[in-house]
Amino acid sequence: MKRVMKLLAVALMLLVFVGCSSDEALTTIRVAEVTRSIFYAPQYVALELGYFEDEGLEVELQTIAGGDKVMIALLSNNSDIGLVGSETSIYVAAQGAEDPIINFAQLTQTDGTFLVARAENDHFSFSDLAGETFLGQRKGGMPQMVGEYVLKEHGIDPETDLELIQNIDFANIASSFLAGTGDYVQLFEPTASQFVKDGNGHIVASFGEESGNVPYTVFMAKESFLAEHEDAVLKFTRAIYRAQQFVESNEPEAIAEIVQPFFVETDGELLTSAVARYKAQGSYANNPLLEQASWEQLKTIMSKAGELPADIDYEELVNRQFAEQVLDE
């Protein structure tokens, strides 16, 4: 009996040792996402299905509301990788950053917002916004710039043809509309679908469909971090690509079920509806490569919104090597 107990004790010690060794072998990557959104479904798929662990990475996910705050986290080394709109990297570079923020893996490739009307309108036209109150997103952010770009493409001047409200914090936009502010509002999923389900609004247009492909949400890091941690960044990109392929090839119901733990307060049917909308309009990039044409469209949108601080070349702020390598594997 004593011999058996000794063997069990040794076995237990070996199990503990192996477990500790496995944990110690993981490389920690601190990722700051600009918001928690079903728009970022591939990231949550990679986390939930263990794709990062398969690559020897332990991802610590932080939600830091606001693109400017994500940039501060990166520049101050409080985060390693940011998931945010590419426009933020242009803003930082235009200020003469010695260690610029570099885009290396694209996650979403269209705008993720929808135009929600307070009143039902089965024959909506953007000209219907003339003279109305439009509750938009934060000035200088991609949602607002895309919103203004789309309005102008349809002959609506957001400064003169309607009442534009853009001084409400992102977290309070939906509640402000519910409280009676605005005739139209620009919302992400699943909030837009929740409004429809509750009878508080009607989705009449997709800004993603109207604006074309842009590097809307991208993984980025300081240039020095990419240089010093090439192996880890490559592994990170490989895990993201694997998740992108999963999202590309699976049904919305399956994707929604996997990411549900990240949205415990959201109904599963709403998550499924949101994923289906994003898949249908091609919002989820099916690979991490940020193409130059999308970068040029981003600058066009920023320029027309009067928010492009400098015409910075694609090669200066986009690193293709990690995406190209995982695509070649």
From TrEMBL:
Keywords: Signal. PROSITE patterns: PROKAR_LIPOPROTEIN (PS51257). Residues 1-21 form the signal peptide. Pfam families: NMT1_2. The keyword Amino-acid biosynthesis does not apply. GO terms for cellular component: periplasmic space. Belongs to the bacterial solute-binding protein SsuA/TauA family. This is NitT/TauT family transport system substrate-binding protein. It comes from Amphibacillus marinus.
